[in-house]
């Protein structure tokens, strides 16, 4: 479905490959924008999930008051129809959080406009007795599968109408969306261009976490992994925190950012630390990341290894084995040891099958409980210990004494 627009300005820039990127500054009615949102607009792969933010949660009041809203940035896979001033089929690059809240306000006002309560609900708020409103509408206002207004949020919206837009009460509430909103629209961007634009646009906002940024930079590999490996379940940073993942990890479930960290660590023969410097080096084309992009077999080899390693840990150590590689501090250190010893993933798997139970995961967990985390960098200490322990197993095939490699055994 097409939306009527006004084109205000146009600019062209080149991406790193020399391709021209077209950008338009346009105006579009807010109600047209909302009515043409894709049903899955908030599930776009490169976007992070909806987050709680007190400022953004109050954006409904700004719309009711008629205040200006910041520009929303879109991308479209089809060219803007400049002759007829039309746009069709867009995705959100920057402005998802705002759009989500505007859309929920729209659904709420539509709901109370269509129900018989539209007169009553305003009269109850005018009485200024908050308990009356709470008693009358004690349950949450379910607006979609993912979102509800609390009773207090619903009352605040109604109250804002009474205070600032009394002329629209109760029959013309949706008129607040009959206003022009400004948009920046990029045409026919490659996924790499979309990701770079979104990271740049988010730079001044609430920080996008490093896991999500790392995932974005390798997002083109995600569909390949899912297509080739039906057994694997990939967990995205926007869907689950690393803490929740570490506590609940199941066999064949892997955090996408951990997979990338694992590959980079293996190629670098050193543990990759996920921070803003790493993100920047990848964006600028560091050697390891280029090798990943140019050699997709590295991805396949790593996934095959992770699945086989996971199966062995489960068969030899049960749930403790499954949880052992839920943290990147362990997983990246294991592959660094393999890489430094100059053996392949396949060689390491053969050693694990030939010398079962030597990883001593139970002993690892017992050792870790003895550490004074207030006096050491626990992440660094764990990585160094795992590298030494795995290296010794590769060389000597003995049961790993984790305490020995943490420097805690003195006899």
Question: What is the secondary structure topology, with strand pairs?
Answer:
Layout (H helix, E strand, L loop, with lengths): L1 E13 L5 E10 H6 L18 H4 L1 H7 L6 E5 L9 E3 L1 E5 L1 H19 L3 H9 L3 H7 L4 E2 L5 E2 L1 H14 L15 E8 L3 H11 L8 H8 L1 H10 L4 E3 L6 H7 L4 E3 H13 L7 H8 L3 H8 L1 H22 L1 H6 L3 H13 L4 H10 L6 H9 L8 H19 L5 H4 L6
Biggest pleated sheet: 6 strands, mixed
Oligomerization: single chain
Spatial strand arrangement across the major sheet: 4-1-2-8-3-5
DSSP summary, beta strand count: 10
- Portion of residues in helices? 40-55%
- Mean pLDDT, nearest integer? 86
Measured between the Cα atoms of the first and last residue, the distance is 76 Å
What does this 3D model show about the protein?
The protein is an alpha+beta fold and 411 residues long. Helix content is 52%, strand content 13%. It has 21 helices and ten strands. It has helices at residues 30-35, 54-57, 59-65, 96-114, 118-126, 130-136, 151-164, 191-201, 210-217, 219-228, 242-248, 256-268, 276-283, 287-294, 296-317, 319-324, 328-340, 345-354, 361-369, 378-396, 402-405, and strands at residues 2-14, 20-29, 72-76, 86-88, 90-94, 141-142, 148-149, 180-187, 233-235, 253-255. Strand 6 and strand 7 form a beta hairpin.
């Amino acid at each position: 479905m097409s939306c009527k627009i006004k084109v205000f300005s146009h600019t062209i820039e080149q991406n790193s490959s020399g391709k021209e990127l077209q950008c338009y500054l346009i105006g579009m009615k807010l109600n047209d924008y909302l009515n043409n949102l894709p049903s899955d607009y908030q599930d776009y792969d490169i976007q992070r999930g909806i987050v709680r933010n007190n400022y953004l949660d109050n954006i409904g009041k700004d719309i009711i008051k008629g205040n200006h809203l910041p520009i929303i940035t879109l991308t479209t896979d089809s060219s803007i129809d400049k002759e007829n001033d039309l746009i069709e089929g867009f995705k959100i690059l920057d402005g998802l959080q705002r759009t989500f809240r505007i859309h929920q306000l729209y659904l709420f006002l539509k709901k109370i406009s269509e129900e018989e309560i539209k007169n009553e609900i305003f009269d109850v708020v005018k009485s200024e007795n908050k308990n009356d409103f709470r008693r009358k509408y004690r349950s949450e206002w379910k607006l979609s599968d993912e979102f509800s207004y609390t009773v207090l949020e619903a009352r605040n919206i109604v109250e804002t109408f009474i205070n600032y837009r009394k002329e629209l009460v109760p029959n013309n509430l949706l008129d607040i969306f009959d206003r022009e909103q400004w948009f920046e629209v990029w045409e026919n961007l490659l996924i790499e261009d979309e990701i770079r634009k979104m990271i740049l646009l988010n730079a001044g906002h609430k920080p996008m976490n490093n896991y999500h940024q790392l995932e974005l930079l390798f997002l083109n590999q995600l569909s390949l992994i899912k297509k080739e490996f039906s057994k694997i379940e990939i967990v995205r940073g926007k869907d689950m925190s690393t803490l929740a993942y570490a506590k609940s990890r199941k066999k064949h479930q892997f955090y996408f950012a951990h997979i990338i960290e694992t590959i980079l660590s293996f190629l670098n023969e050193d543990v990759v630390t996920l921070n803003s410097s790493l993100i920047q080096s990848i964006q600028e084309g560091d050697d390891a990341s280029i090798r990943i992009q140019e050699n997709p077999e590295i991805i396949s080899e790593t996934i095959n290894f992770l699945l086989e390693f996971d199966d062995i840990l489960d068969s030899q150590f049960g749930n403790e084995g499954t949880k052992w590689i839920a943290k990147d501090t362990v997983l990246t250190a294991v592959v660094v040891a393999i890489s430094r010893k100059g053996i392949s993933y396949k060689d390491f798997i053969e050693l694990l099958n030939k010398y079962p139970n030597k990883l001593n995961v139970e002993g690892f967990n017992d050792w870790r409980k003895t550490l004074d985390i207030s006096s050491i960098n626990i992440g660094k200490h764990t990585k160094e210990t795992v590298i030494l322990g795995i290296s010794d197993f590769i060389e000597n095939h003995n049961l790993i004494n984790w305490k020995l490699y943490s420097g805690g055994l003195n006899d």
